[in-house]
Design goal:
Order of helices and strands: EEEEEEEE
Structural class: mainly beta
Shape: globular
Number of domains: 1
InterPro entries: Cupin_2, RmlC-like_jellyroll, RmlC_Cupin_sf
Protein name: Cupin domain-containing protein
Largest sheet: 5 strands, antiparallel
Pfam family, one: Cupin_2
CATH superfamily: Jelly Rolls
CATH architecture: Sandwich
Number of helices: 0
CATH topology: Jelly Rolls
Strand content: over 45%
Strand order of the largest sheet: 1-2-8-3-6
Radius of gyration: 13 Å
CATH class: Mainly Beta
Distance between the termini: 31 Å
Organism: Vibrio amylolyticus
Number of strands: 8
Protein backbone atom coordinates (compact mmCIF):
# COMPACT_ATOMS: atom_id res chain seq x y z
CA UNK A 1 0.00 0.00 0.00
CA UNK A 2 1.26 3.51 -0.81
CA UNK A 3 0.92 6.60 1.35
CA UNK A 4 0.19 10.07 -0.09
CA UNK A 5 2.50 11.65 2.52
CA UNK A 6 5.52 9.40 1.91
CA UNK A 7 8.60 9.88 -0.27
CA UNK A 8 8.68 13.67 0.04
CA UNK A 9 12.22 15.10 0.02
CA UNK A 10 13.23 17.67 2.64
CA UNK A 11 14.15 20.24 -0.01
CA UNK A 12 12.26 20.85 -3.23
CA UNK A 13 14.05 23.04 -5.78
CA UNK A 14 11.04 22.36 -8.05
CA UNK A 15 7.52 21.10 -7.50
CA UNK A 16 7.03 17.34 -7.67
CA UNK A 17 4.29 15.93 -9.93
CA UNK A 18 3.56 12.22 -9.47
CA UNK A 19 0.89 10.26 -11.33
CA UNK A 20 -0.81 7.93 -8.84
CA UNK A 21 -3.36 6.49 -11.27
CA UNK A 22 -3.76 6.85 -15.00
CA UNK A 23 -6.49 5.50 -17.27
CA UNK A 24 -7.90 6.57 -20.61
CA UNK A 25 -10.36 9.02 -19.00
CA UNK A 26 -8.89 9.77 -15.56
CA UNK A 27 -5.52 10.76 -14.12
CA UNK A 28 -4.85 11.20 -10.39
CA UNK A 29 -1.77 13.24 -9.56
CA UNK A 30 -0.03 14.20 -6.34
CA UNK A 31 1.61 17.63 -6.45
CA UNK A 32 4.04 18.71 -3.74
CA UNK A 33 4.92 22.42 -3.52
CA UNK A 34 7.22 24.26 -1.15
CA UNK A 35 6.64 27.98 -1.60
CA UNK A 36 6.37 27.50 -5.36
CA UNK A 37 4.20 29.51 -7.75
CA UNK A 38 3.58 29.63 -11.49
CA UNK A 39 5.81 31.77 -13.68
CA UNK A 40 4.67 35.41 -13.90
CA UNK A 41 3.84 35.15 -17.59
CA UNK A 42 1.58 32.51 -19.06
CA UNK A 43 -1.37 30.48 -17.83
CA UNK A 44 -2.20 26.81 -17.46
CA UNK A 45 -4.69 26.09 -20.27
CA UNK A 46 -5.60 22.41 -20.13
CA UNK A 47 -7.67 20.16 -22.38
CA UNK A 48 -8.87 18.24 -19.32
CA UNK A 49 -11.04 19.26 -16.37
CA UNK A 50 -9.11 19.33 -13.09
CA UNK A 51 -10.58 18.78 -9.63
CA UNK A 52 -8.03 19.71 -6.98
CA UNK A 53 -7.95 19.44 -3.18
CA UNK A 54 -5.32 20.64 -0.71
CA UNK A 55 -4.36 17.90 1.77
CA UNK A 56 -1.65 19.88 3.57
CA UNK A 57 -0.56 23.52 3.47
CA UNK A 58 -2.25 26.19 1.38
CA UNK A 59 -2.49 27.15 -2.29
CA UNK A 60 -3.73 30.32 -3.94
CA UNK A 61 -5.09 30.09 -7.49
CA UNK A 62 -5.64 33.00 -9.87
CA UNK A 63 -7.87 32.83 -12.91
CA UNK A 64 -7.62 34.84 -16.11
CA UNK A 65 -10.95 36.53 -15.30
CA UNK A 66 -9.39 38.02 -12.12
CA UNK A 67 -10.80 35.58 -9.55
CA UNK A 68 -8.45 34.55 -6.77
CA UNK A 69 -9.24 31.45 -4.71
CA UNK A 70 -7.38 30.43 -1.55
CA UNK A 71 -7.46 26.72 -0.81
CA UNK A 72 -6.68 25.60 2.74
CA UNK A 73 -6.57 22.03 4.03
CA UNK A 74 -9.67 20.19 2.83
CA UNK A 75 -10.73 22.90 0.37
CA UNK A 76 -11.31 21.76 -3.20
CA UNK A 77 -12.14 23.37 -6.52
CA UNK A 78 -13.09 22.19 -9.99
CA UNK A 79 -11.26 23.87 -12.88
CA UNK A 80 -13.00 23.44 -16.22
CA UNK A 81 -11.04 22.48 -19.32
CA UNK A 82 -9.81 25.64 -21.06
CA UNK A 83 -10.21 27.79 -17.92
CA UNK A 84 -6.89 29.63 -17.76
CA UNK A 85 -5.34 29.68 -14.29
CA UNK A 86 -2.06 29.79 -12.37
CA UNK A 87 -0.75 29.19 -8.87
CA UNK A 88 -0.09 32.54 -7.19
CA UNK A 89 1.49 31.03 -4.09
CA UNK A 90 1.83 28.02 -1.85
CA UNK A 91 2.75 27.79 1.83
CA UNK A 92 6.22 29.10 2.57
CA UNK A 93 6.50 27.49 6.03
CA UNK A 94 5.34 23.95 5.15
CA UNK A 95 5.00 21.80 2.09
CA UNK A 96 1.69 21.97 0.25
CA UNK A 97 0.32 18.62 -0.87
CA UNK A 98 -2.34 18.74 -3.56
CA UNK A 99 -4.36 15.88 -5.00
CA UNK A 100 -5.50 16.60 -8.56
CA UNK A 101 -7.96 14.54 -10.59
CA UNK A 102 -7.84 15.21 -14.32
CA UNK A 103 -10.81 13.95 -16.32
CA UNK A 104 -12.18 14.19 -19.84
CA UNK A 105 -14.77 16.71 -20.90
Amino acid sequence: MSNIYSNIPNTLPQEIFTDLLKTEHLRVERIVSDGHSSPESGWYDQNENEWVIVLQGQGVLEFEDGRIITLNVGDHHNIKAGEKHKVLSTSANEKTIWLALFYSK
